[in-house]
Amino acid sequence: MINSCRLQRPVLSLFQSANKLKLRYKLKYTGCRNSSSNSDDLKVKDNIYTIPNALSFSRILLSPIVAYSVINGQHSTALVLFSVAGLTDFLDGQIARRFPSQRSLLGSIIDPIGDKMLMGLTTASVWYSGLMPSWLVFIILGRDIILLCGGLAVKYKSLDRFSIKELFNIADGTIEVKPGWHGKVNMCLQLGAVIGCLGAPIWSLQDSTYLRGYLAITGVMGVYSLVQYILTYKKVMGKIHSEPKWMEESKKDS
Hints:
By secondary structure, the protein is mainly alpha-helical. It contains ten helices and four strands.
């Protein structure tokens, strides 16, 4: 029970549209006392030394090593390390879901950072080495940049008060758009594309028609997924405020 807790700040009144837009809301509790149930929401703030966090940190550390190996032509080494790093991504998620004691606020932050570092650095290094076409790299990295900007725009309009610290505080209670099926399929295709391009010199697939076809499918799915996310962000933006919340309140005060 957390009846004795008070909310640090009110959450946006979008609960009625939560199911339609697949939104998830996170409440941040402070000043909690007499919590008899020791809820997971309270545990995760202090639970730093966990197996998922160690796996996420290892993925972050492996990312530049994978990129270095690719650039220096050590494709077999890079492929093995990339596969190991990808395995850590699968394991940390499974452990966190099955064992609540292994969940942490830190993990919710460094896990996506590790994912983006691994994919971003590996994709850039594969392109630099001439193993992946420029148009596909543009779609993969451009999609992530656009999604990041969209997330910041939603956060900007939802702020109670504006500050750079609050804008980039991803651990604070805010709106999170869950990935749809297209996002998950796109991620799987991207992983396959990176593995295929890394393995092309090893398996003599540089001129493979099948690999080129697979990369084309990956690119099309990336564009489709991006369009779907843009439409979702547009709906979210329309449901929040015509102006940022902090700006509306400042006008009222004046």
